[in-house]
């Protein structure tokens, strides 16, 4: 069955979140429309409008490649996803109340520049026992002191996730960055990274970090040309002047890094840890997502054939 480039792009766009059991609305399909996968580019019109997407969705419905309940769209044979998304959206509301508690504490730490929610909760797509994923951005030379404070707070509330990851409903501080290291997020230009950046939600932004991310990651539109970034409440705040106290705090941060790195050394697998950033992803998340995406597409192609 011959498919136009826009039809292919829409199928790719619907199938990517399908592995998370997450059907999309028409406007979400337009915003997340995929143009590039690895080295493969789709030749799309210079500017795809929502009207064009709506028209193409009708064509794909007529070809019985996708299905809809009138609001959400999914691959053929996945109609159960509509109820699942609505149920998980209701479940997510309670998770956001827990996020408010964590963010309220983070705001009290003067070195915290911004807090982002990532993963499933950022999409309002969680079950009751799911973890909550955070990205924390700090001032320069303050990451490891901040991590120590937040880890102790999570531990006191029984929310800290251990290396075994057996705890339910825990807080996972997976991604840590100092403001000067924000560009590290753009070193890997991939659809996976673009999607993660797009769906991250701002919970707190003291120094305009969200704007900095937009400015330093314009490459994202190479993969998702219609991507729009969500805002957040922003409080403008400059860096403190260098004083004997700030120099002492920087030294304490170095000691905190050395102690935490020593503790983590025996547990680390795929983690990337430096003094200015830390990615705590022991699983090959990107590989897992791409593998499942290929399976989803393969099943769809078999069904259409």
- Principal-axis shape: elongated
Number of domains: 2
Oligomer: single chain
Sheet-strand content, in percent, reads 5-15%
Number of helices: 11
Q: Mean pLDDT, as a whole number?
A: 86
N-C termini distance: 8 Å
CATH class of the largest domain: Alpha Beta
Which radius of gyration do the C-alpha atoms yield? Answer: 21 Å
What class would the helix/strand composition place it in?
alpha+beta
Q: SSE order in H/E notation?
A: HEHEEHEEHEHEHEHEHHHEEH
| CATH superfamily heading of the largest domain | Beta Polymerase, domain 2
Low-confidence stretches: 230-239
List keywords for this structure.
11 strands; 11 helices; Beta Polymerase, domain 2; Arc Repressor Mutant, subunit A; six-stranded mixed beta sheet; three-stranded antiparallel beta sheet; 2 domains; elongated; alpha+beta; about 300 residues
Structure description:
The structure is a single chain. By secondary structure, this protein is an alpha+beta fold. It has two domains: 5-84 and 289-304, Arc Repressor Mutant, subunit A (Orthogonal Bundle), CATH 1.10.10; 97-283, Beta Polymerase, domain 2 (2-Layer Sandwich). Helix content is 46%, strand content 15%. It is built from eleven helices and eleven strands. The chain has helices at residues 5-18, 26-31, 50-62, 81-107, 119-122, 143-156, 191-199, 209-216, 220-223, 244-264, 285-304; strands spanning 24-25, 36-37, 40-41, 66-68, 72-75, 112-118, 132-138, 171-178, 201-205, 272-273, 277-279. Helix 6 packs across helix 10 (244-264).
Question: Can I get a quick summary?
Answer:
By secondary structure, the protein is of the alpha+beta class. The protein is built from eleven helices and eleven strands. α6 (143-156) links the parallel β7 (132-138) and β8 (171-178).
């Amino acid at each position: 069955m011959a498919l136009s480039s826009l039809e292919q792009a829409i199928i790719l766009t619907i199938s990517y979140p399908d592995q998370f059991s997450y059907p999309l609305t028409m406007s979400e399909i337009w915003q997340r429309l995929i143009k590039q996968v690895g080295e493969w580019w789709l030749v799309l019109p210079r500017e795809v409008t929502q009207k064009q997407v709506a028209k193409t969705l009708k064509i794909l419905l007529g070809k019985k490649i996708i299905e809809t309940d009138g609001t959400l769209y999914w691959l053929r044979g996945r109609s159960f996803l509509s109820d699942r998304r609505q149920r998980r959206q209701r479940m997510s509301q309670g998770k956001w109340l827990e996020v408010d508690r964590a963010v309220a504490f983070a705001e009290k730490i003067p070195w915290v520049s911004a807090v982002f929610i990532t993963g499933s909760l950022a999409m309002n797509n969680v079950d009751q026992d799911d973890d909550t994923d955070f990205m924390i951005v700090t001032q320069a030379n303050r990451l490891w002191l901040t991590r120590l404070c937040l880890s102790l707070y999570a531990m006191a509330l029984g929310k800290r996730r251990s290396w075994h990851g057996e705890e339910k409903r825990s807080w996972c501080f997976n991604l840590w960055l100092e403001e000067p290291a924000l560009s590290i997020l753009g070193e890997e230009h991939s659809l996976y990274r673009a999607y993660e950046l797009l769906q991250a939600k701002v919970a707190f932004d003291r120094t305009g970090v969200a704007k900095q991310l937009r400015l330093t990651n314009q490459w994202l539109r190479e993969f998702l040309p219609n991507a729009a970034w969500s805002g957040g409440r922003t409080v403008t705040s400059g860096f403190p002047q260098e004083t004997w106290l700030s120099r002492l705090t920087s030294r304490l941060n170095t000691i905190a890094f050395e102690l935490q790195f020593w503790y983590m050394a025996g547990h680390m697998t795929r983690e990337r840890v430096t003094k200015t950033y830390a990615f705590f992803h022991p699983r090959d998340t990107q590989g897992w997502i791409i593998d499942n995406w290929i399976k989803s597409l393969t099943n769809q192609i078999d069904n259409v054939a």
